[in-house]
Amino acid sequence: MRPFDYVKPADVAAAVRAVATAPGAKFIGGGTNLVDLMREGIETPDTVVDLGGLPLDGVEELPDGGLRIGALVRNSALAADQRVRGRYPMLSQAILSGASAQLRNMATVGGNLLQRTRCPYFYDQAAACNKRAPGSGCDALDGFNRGHAVLGVSEQCIATHPSDMCVALAALDAVVEVESVRGTRRIPVADLHRLPGATPDVEFELAADQLITAVELPPVPVAANSRYRKVRDRASYAFALVSVAAALEVRDGAVTAARLALGGVAAKPWRAREAERLLVGGPASEESFGRAADAELAAATVRPGNAFKVALARATIVATLRDLTHGGSTA
Ligand code: SF4
C-alpha cells in the first residue's frame, strides 16, 4: 500500500477543511471498501481523513414523521432500529441482505452510499477498464459479464452499483445532506449516483471535498408494507444478480400507491418510475405486475452473459409485488 498522511479531525468543520486543503485526500468511515481499494492500488489517496468519533452516529425523528440518519451510523445499527423496521422494513431487509455481519458492524451509512463497483476488471490492474483508467477500454463488454448491468449502460462501462441499502433508499426518496467549506447541500439519493455515459470514472454528483453528514428519510406511509428481495448466487455474502425494493398499497383489488427500485441491473440504484406509473390505479394482479415490469425493462441492453437478468428481474418484481399484495412484509 502506498504511504499516506493520516488526519483525525475534531469536528465536521475540521474534517471538511482538512480535505479542502489537501488535494488527493479521502474521507474514511468504516473503511470496508476504501481499505480494500487502497490495498489493490486502485485508490491512492495522499491523505486519509478519519471520520471515526465525529458526532454523526445518531438516528433522530424529524418533525414531519421521517428520520434523520447520521452518516456514521453502522449498517447493523440502522437495520436493527425499531423505527426503521416498523416504518421502512425494505430498508432494514436490504441492509441485512448485504455483506456479512462483521462487515455490517463496521460499514457506515455514508460509506455504503459511496462504495464502488465490484466489477472484477475494475480491481484487476492488468485489465482494460474505463472507470479505473479512462480511455483504456472495457474488458467486461466481451468478457465475463454475468453480473453486469442491463439498464442505463454505455459502450464505455456496464458495471453495476453494488449496494443493497441504496436500492431501498432510492425507492424511499431519501435525501443526502453533504457539507463542505462552501456550505450545506441536499441531494436526492436518486441523483447521487451517475450513469456511466462517456465518463464512467465520474460516479457521483459529489465533489471530492464534500462530506456526507446525514441521510433523511421522508415519511412514506406505503413503506410500512414493503419488502426487499435479493437474488444472488449464494445465500449470504454475495452481491445481487437482481434485487427489488418494493412497497405496495392495495384497496379493493386496485393498487393505490407503489414504490419500486431495482438493484444489480444498473450503475445506480434503479428507480422504476415507469413501472410505478403503470401500477398505480391498475389491478393488483400478476398480469398487471408483469406488464409494469416489462415496461420498465423494455430499454434493457444485454450481453450474452447477462441476458438472463431481464427475465430474472421480471420474475423477481412480480413475485415481490405478489407477496406484498398478500401482506408479505417482514423485517
Ligand atoms: Fe471497468 Fe466498467 Fe468495464 Fe468494469 S464494466 S471493466 S468497471 S469500464
From TrEMBL:
PROSITE patterns annotated for this entry?
Answer: FAD_PCMH
Its keywords, alphabetically, are: Oxidoreductase
Q: Which InterPro entries match?
A: CO_DH_flav_C, CO_DH_flav_C_dom_sf, Diverse_Substr_Oxidored, FAD-bd_PCMH, FAD-bd_PCMH-like_sf, FAD-bd_PCMH_sub1, FAD-bd_PCMH_sub2, Mopterin_DH_FAD-bd
Against Pfam families, the record matches this protein to:
CO_deh_flav_C (PF03450), FAD_binding_5 (PF00941)
The family database entries (Gene3D superfamilies) matched by this protein are listed as:
3.30.465.10, CO dehydrogenase flavoprotein, C-terminal domain, Uridine Diphospho-n-acetylenolpyruvylglucosamine Reductase, domain 2
Q: Respond yes or no to whether keyword Oxidoreductase is given for this record.
A: yes
What's the protein name?
Xanthine dehydrogenase YagS FAD-binding subunit
Q: Which organism is it from?
A: Nonomuraea jiangxiensis
